Every structure is written in structure tokens, then in C-alpha cells.
């Protein structure tokens, strides 16, 4: 079965970030043979004076393919891990969802999208999770991270928000590859321009610094734009990092 695990508010200004905590949970799941994690997405939520956050107010979400019998031990491990490893002063939250068992995916998606635009009370997140039979738990501090954790799951379910944590591992800056070769990368489902149009398989793309994919239509999409300078015959280049901040 497919499970989504999201966490939020696990760090402070000097600790390792929520993305690293999510990666450690993913590594432990795989090392223990509980499941096969997919790539982690970062979801930017509303930045507002009424919302306490460390730096960017972003949640992390990862999918895992696992047998049903491994679900409870995974949840128990994640709960214990957050309580043990999260930074002093953080307000961690954990959300775990079995995608085929969600009573109303549309409500979770709507909650996630609202969390990008509105200040939401913790009580609303807990009430929604209870009604939809979704695991949502607090693991220290005020527990306000449950809002972002639930939103992270909703946004990943939506499939049109967030960007991959880390960079594509099998490419290097300055490299020139065809779109077809890029589609052979395990974390690239499609190559598109920012307006959503696809790029010809034979087109050459120059790899920029720290290329990331973004979530679009449920897939992992590498965004490219017409090259500012044609180098090595590449008429396209990966989107620069500053432009990926919009995702």
C-alpha cells in the first residue's frame, strides 16, 4: 500500500532542518525493511506574523510503498524519533495517511491549499484528522506542527505543489543532456517549460546549479527554460534556483 508521511516544525534556528529529519526517517524505514520511500517534497506554507515558524514555514512529505503489517511499527518509530531527535523549542507534528483509505481526499487537499493562504487553528487540523481517520500527532512544544504536517499530506495528494528536497543526484552542473536522457533519471517523470508545455525528446538541456524537480499533475517534473546563452548546442537550461522558490 502507499503511505504518505509528513512532518513539520521539527527544528530551531541552529539545528538540522525538517528536511534532514524527514530524510533520516526515510532511511530508517528502508534500512529496517518496512518499505520503499520515494523522494521527499518541500511544501511552502503561509508566512504570517500570527504563525510561529523557524525560518520558512515549510512542511516535508514523503511517500512509502509498504506492506500493511509494517504501518503501525513505522508510525511508532516516527513518533519516537521525533520526540527524541527534534530540536529544543520546536513544536513537531506528524501526519501519516494510507492513500487508499482516505475518507475524503478532497478535504485534505483543500486544507493543504488553505494553509498556503490562511492562518489555521491547530484545533481545526486535529478535528479534521479525527473525522477522516488520519493519524495526526503532536510531539513536543505547542504541537502546532500538526497544522503543517496535515497540510503537507494534503498538498502532496493534490500533486501540484512543492519541490524535491535535494538535487538530482545523477547529473552535474554544466552537463548537456537530451530530454530523453533526463527522462531516464529515476526522479524525473517529465521535462516541461514553466508554462506546462513539454519539450522535444531530442532537445539538448544544459544542467544548472542544484537542479530540482517540482510536483505537477502528480509527477516529478524538471522545469527548463530557453537558454540565455547556447552552450554545447543546448537551446534549453534547467530553471535557476531563484526561480524555483516560487514552487
UniProtKB/TrEMBL annotation:
This is tRNA(Ile2) 2-agmatinylcytidine synthetase.
Amino acid at each position: 500500500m502507499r503511505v504518505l508521511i509528513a512532518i513539520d516544525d521539527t527544528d530551531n534556528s541552529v539545528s538540522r532542518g525538517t528536511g534532514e529529519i524527514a530524510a533520516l526517517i526515510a532511511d530508517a524505514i528502508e534500512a529496517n525493511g518496512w518499505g520503499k520511500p520515494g523522494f521527499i517534497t518541500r511544501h511552502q506554507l503561509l508566512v504570517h506574523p500570527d504563525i510561529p515558524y523557524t525560518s520558512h514555514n515549510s512542511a516535508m512529505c514523503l511517500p512509502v510503498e509498504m506492506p500493511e503489517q509494517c504501518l503501525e511499527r513505522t508510525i511508532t518509530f516516527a513518533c519516537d524519533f521525533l520526540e527524541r531527535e527534534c530540536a529544543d523549542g520546536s513544536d513537531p507534528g506528524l501526519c501519516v495517511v494510507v492513500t487508499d483509505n482516505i475518507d475524503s481526499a478532497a478535504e485534505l487537499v483543500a486544507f493543504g491549499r488553505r494553509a498556503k493562504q490562511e492562518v489555521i487553528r491547530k484545533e481545526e487540523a486535529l478535528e479534521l484528522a479525527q473525522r477522516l481517520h488520519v493519524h495526526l500527532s503532536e510531539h513536543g512544544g505547542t504541537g502546532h506542527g500538526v497544522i503543517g504536517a496535515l497540510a503537507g499530506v494534503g498538498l502532496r495528494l493534490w500533486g501540484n505543489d512543492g519541490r524535491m528536497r535535494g538535487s538530482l543526484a545523477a547529473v552535474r552542473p554544466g552537463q548537456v543532456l537530451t530530454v530523453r536522457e533526463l527522462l531516464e533519471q529515476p526522479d524525473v517523470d517529465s521535462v516541461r517549460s514553466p508554462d506546462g508545455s513539454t519539450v522535444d525528446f531530442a532537445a539538448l538541456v544544459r544542467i544548472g546549479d542544484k537542479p530540482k524537480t517540482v510536483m505537477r499533475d502528480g509527477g516529478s517534473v524538471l522545469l527548463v527554460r530557453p537558454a540565455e546563452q547556447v552552450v554545447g548546442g543546448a537551446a534549453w537550461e534547467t530553471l535557476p534556483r531563484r526561480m524555483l522558490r516560487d514552487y
